[in-house]
Design brief:
By secondary structure, this protein is an alpha/beta fold. It has six helices and 14 strands. The protein has a single domain, classed as Class I glutamine amidotransferase (GATase) domain (Rossmann fold). Helices cover 25% and strands 33% of the residues. The chain has an eight-stranded mixed β-sheet. Helix 1 (13-22) links the parallel strand 1 and strand 2 (26-30). The longest helix has 13 residues, at 182-194. The chain starts with a strand and ends with a helix.
Length: 197
């Protein structure tokens, strides 16, 4: 199985690659649109700002991702880039999921970014979370959050509920970092690798 991990030059790419290696996946880190288009799976990781990340996705890569017919997983910022628009930099996203990504609001007891372990609450079933129970914890680092809507698979709460994971058709996203979420994250990545093409 071929897995293309998109090279954005930001954030969590190395830890994603190590996590896939531990699962026995033959993953390639690349920004080559042709190779990404041919892959059986694509992972769009990301840590950083939405506007900067979208600038790094040139027109060719954007078109490949928008038309990609097999399983596609966005991680953290990668999930946010799946949406129509992000308040972070007032930038258009890939438009694979409808809605706007908005800023989390800090409070005296909830600083931003949201950094740490939060419980996942499942809204509906998906193969991506087979074997993971509602209430299990995953590791988050983010200041912006995706809306809770019909694409939402799981929510978490940080001052307000937000989409911790999404799924629509072949498009999946995790606001949390599966590569840093222990056994839960490893199970999510293993499930992603097992999805039918």
């Amino acid at each position: 199985m071929s897995v293309a991990v998109i090279r954005l030059g930001v954030g969590n790419t190395a830890s994603v690659m190590f996590a896939l290696e531990r699962l026995g996946a033959a993953a390639e880190l690349t920004d080559d649109a042709a190779r990404i288009a041919e892959a059986e799976r694509v992972i769009l990781p990301g840590v950083g700002a939405a506007a900067a990340a979208m600038r790094l996705l040139d027109d060719g890569l954007r078109q490949v991702l928008r038309k990609f017919p097999r399983p596609l997983l966005g991680i953290c910022l990668g999930q946010q880039l799946l949406y129509d628009f992000s308040q972070e930099g007032d930038v258009a996203g890939l438009g694979l999921l409808a809605g706007d990504v908005t800023a989390l609001e800090p409070t005296s007891r909830l600083p931003i970014p949201h950094m740490g372990w939060s419980a996942l609450q499942f809204e509906r079933e998906t193969a991506l979370f087979e074997g993971v129970a509602s209430g299990e914890y995953a590791y988050f680092v983010h200041s912006y959050a995706c809306p809770v809507d019909d694409a939402t698979v799981a929510t978490a709460d940080y001052g307000r509920p937000f989409s911790a994971a999404v799924a629509r058709g072949n498009v999946f996203g995790c606001q949390f970092h599966p590569e840093r979420s222990g056994a839960v994250g490893a199970r999510v990545l293993r499930n992603f690798l097992a999805l039918p093409c």
